Amino acid sequence: MTVELTDLARAIDHTFLKPEGRRADIEQTVAEAAALGTYSVCVSPSALPLALPEGSTLKVTVVCGFPSGKHHSDVKAAEAALAVSQGADEIDMVIDIGAALDGRFDAVEADISAVRAAVPAPTVLKVIIESAALDDDTITAVCRAAESAGADFVKTSTGFHPAGGASVHAVEVMKRAVGDRVAIKASGGIRDRAGAEAMLRAGASRLGISSSRTVLSGGTSQDTY
């Protein structure tokens, strides 16, 4: 499967989440996303509100509980609600990875449910599971907890975890867990077009990429996100 360039661009959340990011970096990211025709721009909560180009269809994605996921559920819920009030269309929340590793999947589901309740539809909720830190059985259980909590997407990675980012294998495991009932976003370490297309073939329908221009132009990036 070869993906048309415009279709590939429309699968991308063009991302800028560097802690040292400045206002000029955010403005450049928004302008680049609009020029490339990506689906959304993904930023940190403090970047809001964004000034989008006039007439733009660009969506705004904001991370929540990022990158550790160790925030209290009430704090995640409040952060997500504030982001939506400031213009976010989509929320990418991080689960408590330790709870997943402990097998406390009820706690994982409750965490996601708290954010879902704070940002009901039509806000899109994506759940970052940090798949590189989990075995296949845990990935499956976490994905099913996200589905039960009403998530719209499960997402592989923050791109900041030392265990690594997205892998084709993880996307395949996630796809088997949720089928077509929940969408999948692959992010973290997608550095070229071949890698991006491999994630889509494995079952992802959205990609988190910070080096979108490089990927779309056929180059190779060294970015981890």
Quick synopsis:
With 225 residues, this protein is an alpha/beta fold. Helices cover 40% and strands 16% of the residues. It has one domain (5-46, 55-216): Aldolase class I (TIM Barrel).
Task: Please give a structural write-up.
This protein has 225 residues and is an alpha/beta fold. The chain has one domain: Aldolase class I (TIM Barrel, Alpha-Beta Barrel). 40% of the residues lie in helices and 16% in strands. The protein is built from nine helices and eight strands. It has helices at residues 5-9, 23-36, 73-85, 97-101, 105-118, 136-148, 168-178, 193-202, 212-216; strands at 12-16, 40-43, 59-64, 90-94, 124-128, 153-155, 183-187, 206-209. Strands 1-2-3-4-5-6-7-8 form an eight-stranded parallel barrel, surrounded by six helices. α6 packs across α7. The two termini are 24 Å apart.
CATH architecture: Alpha-Beta Barrel
Question: What's the number of helices?
Answer: 9
**SSE succession:** HEHEEHEHHEHEHEHEH
Tell me which oligomeric state these chains represent: single chain
CATH class: Alpha Beta
Rg, Å, rounded:
16 Å
Count structural domains.
Answer: 1
Give start-end ranges of low-pLDDT stretches. Answer: none
Could you tell me the mean pLDDT? Answer: 96
General form: globular
Q: What is the helix content?
A: 40-55%
Strand numbers in spatial order across the main sheet? 1-2-3-4-5-6-7-8
Name the CATH superfamily assignment.
Aldolase class I
Which terms would index this structure?
TIM Barrel; 9 helices; 16% strand; 225 residues; 8-stranded parallel beta barrel; alpha/beta; DeoC/FbaB/LacD_aldolase; 40% helix
